[in-house]
Amino acid sequence: MVLRQALLPRLLACLLVLLAGCSSAGDDGGAPAWADGMPTVQEADLPAEAQRTLDLVDTGGPFPYEEDGTVFGNFEGLLPQRENGYYLEYTVRTPGATDRGAQRIVIGAEGETYYTDDHYASFTAVLR
User: Contact, 107 vs 57, CB < 8 A?
Assistant: First the structure.
């Protein structure tokens, strides 16, 4: 009986920890740590042009612009700070634009993927 009385509070505490962990996972959609504090979007919910750019990145090109695959400097400081060369950027074609437009995909060396539709004024973490 004494053993049961000592065990019950511990079991309840474990149950509360498990329940708290389950409820917090649903709040952020299971976003990875690198996306913490950022808006997120599923890859399938990106504009079709951005999805095509990611397909090109995944297959190694060919890319439509000479600047694609070059270093993104993160001068705005909106992405996590990393060493120079950590991030690469790719142009997302903008229908009707006469230049490269404002949309980009930025990819970190560990696969972190970000999308901007306002030329680096803001970023959305892409969940792939």
Answer: yes
